Amino acid sequence: MGNLIHIGLIGCGAIARQAHLPVLRRAGGVRVAAVADAAPQQLPPGVPGFTDYRQLLDLPDIMAVVITAPTSLHAEIAEAAFARGKHVYLEKPLAISQSEADRVVSAWRRAGTVGMIGFNYRFNPLLAELREQVKALGQLAAARSVFSLAARAMPSWKDARSTGGGVLLDLASHHVDLARFLFGEEIVAVRATVRAVQREADTATLELRFASGCRLQSFFSWCAVEEDRWEIYGTMGKAMVNRYGGGLGYRLRKRGAPGGDPSYRIALEHFLQAVRRGAPAQPDFADGLQSLRVILAAEESAKSGSEVLL
Fold it and tell me: Which CB contacts under 8 angstroms, 24+ apart, belong to 245-252?
């Protein structure tokens, strides 16, 4: 029992109940020792629960925490967890402002513990395979991506940018991270438009320019069709993938996976393995910072109408 990881879950909303909690409960060598959520009705039965996350963090046996609280609380909770020497898996995005991001990254570096950002789609089998295909495309010339969801009810905090809402933080942050992961290079400039169709900042277009000159054009929406698609063109060919597609075997695997995607389990298992080994995990908080920098630049571009350099 000495190797048992005592873990805490902070934030018990829908995605935590559908994905993170089922994965943690089924993981070998893991005990969900406590949960926390400001809304008492969201606390799952059968495990000690708190409405103040600080009470969970003060438990001495908690080694690691998974944070799935509303976006505006991400940096605050992660910073407090690092101050207590915990390992942290933080759902994306890292923070909602540059100042918050700088503080939490500094706290992570001081703590010297595992800090992983929940860019779980890096671990999706289709996208992992796409990364390998990209290596065979030669010099990349251009790429397109779409990540959109059909209109649906959402938590009220997603209605305003001030509380962490908006499609850029919610969906585009994933594709920004995936672009760096797939292409293996950094984004140097961004141009964006953002508009409201049904709620604040629920639709956006981005053009990302990479150090090599390759450009990625992306569309994001909370009120369109269900789609998560990539098209990447190089001098030696092209590669395409749709995360909502795939073969029959993948679709069955996806249907039975916690949260409706196998990447949640694989990403959390990667985090737990890093905790056991005391080794770094990726994507880490530096990756989270890079994604947020691009999102903040996109917001600046949308306001100014001009390309913003990073």
Answer: 246/126, 250/125, 250/126
Residue indicated by tokens 């990254």: 105
Closest-CA residue to 294 (of 187, 218, 211): 187
Q: pTM here?
A: 0.96
Angle CA(221)–CA(227)–CA(229) in degrees, nearest 5? 105
Sign of CA dihedral 72, 19, 67, 272: negative
CA of 258: how far to CAs of 55, 182, 275, 300, in Å? Answer: 28, 24, 21, 36
**Is 1's pLDDT higher than 50?**
no
Phi-psi region of 46 (alpha: psi -120 to 50; beta: other; left: phi over 0): left
- Write down the residue that tokens 């009705």 correspond to: 41
pLDDT in tens, 61-92: 999 999 999 999 999 999 999 999 999 999 99
